[in-house]
Design a protein that fits this description.
Structural class: alpha/beta
Largest sheet: 10 strands, mixed
Distance between the termini: 24 Å
Strand order of the largest sheet: 4-3-2-1-5-8-12-13-14-15
Number of domains: 1
Order of helices and strands: HEEEEHEEEHEEEEEEEHE
CATH superfamily: Glutaconate Coenzyme A-transferase
CATH topology: Glutaconate Coenzyme A-transferase
């Protein structure tokens, strides 16, 4: 089945949402990771932290209820959930660096078989800066990478990252439209295959070596 970009991102976001538990404090990277909150089970309520100083990020507002003062780290207008609050950057980064974030979900340019992540820079191309990703990844209790499996047909799960690293040996899980990988002590394990893919397809589009560990 040929998936368009919107379908692909929905598949990934829905699977990411299953990793959240009631009461989790979660930070979501811009783009695809933010879509995961749309698919939370009704009995799961999480606290979304944004690195620019919003604790308790709510839903995106409709045009009639936009408050231009309330934005997330990506610059998008958001709302504040009941009980939410604003902090300065000092407190926001203290949360991130201090181990107070249960789960961080980020996109990636590359992830490799050692749990290394590259997601902020392609040499020779314009980049606005690394943002807070490096702070997020070292302080979070669990790091999930949510990304499309390939980029223009090229594998994004590689043997060794060739792009500048965001962090080394910190990735815990990779979720793509084709399946789910977990990083364990002995290496990368494929633990789920998407209904829209197959083991053969994953082998052909994944450069990194991996174990097959599907229940």
């Amino acid at each position: 089945m040929e998936l368009d970009k919107e379908q692909t991102q929905e598949i990934i976001a829905r699977r990411v949402a299953k990793e959240f538990h009631d009461g989790d404090v979660v930070t979501l990277g811009i783009g695809l990771p933010t879509k995961a909150v749309q698919y939370l089970p009704q009995d799961v309520h999480i606290i979304v932290q944004s690195e620019n100083g919003v604790l308790g990020v709510g839903a995106y507002p409709d045009k009639e209820h936009i408050d231009a003062r309330i934005i997330n780290a990506g610059g998008a207008n958001v709302t504040l959930s009941e009980g939410g609050c604003f902090t300065d950057s000092f407190m926001a980064f203290a949360m991130m660096r201090g181990g107070h974030i249960d789960i961080t979900v980020l996109g990636a340019l590359q992830v490799d078989a050692e749990g290394n992540l590259a997601n902020w820079c392609i040499p020779g191309k314009f980049t606005p800066g690394m943002g807070g990703a490096m702070d997020l990844v070292v302080g979070t209790k669990k790091l999930i990478i949510a990304m499309e499996h390939t980029a223009k047909g090229a594998p994004k799960i590689v043997k060794k990252c060739t792009l500048p690293l965001t962090v080394a040996h910190k990735v815990n899980m990779i979720i793509t439209e084709k399946g789910v990988f977990e990083m364990r002590a002995d290496g990368l394990h494929l633990t789920e295959i998407s209904p829209y893919s197959s083991l053969e397809d994953i082998k052909q589009t994944t450069e990194a070596d991996f174990y097959i560990n599907i229940d």
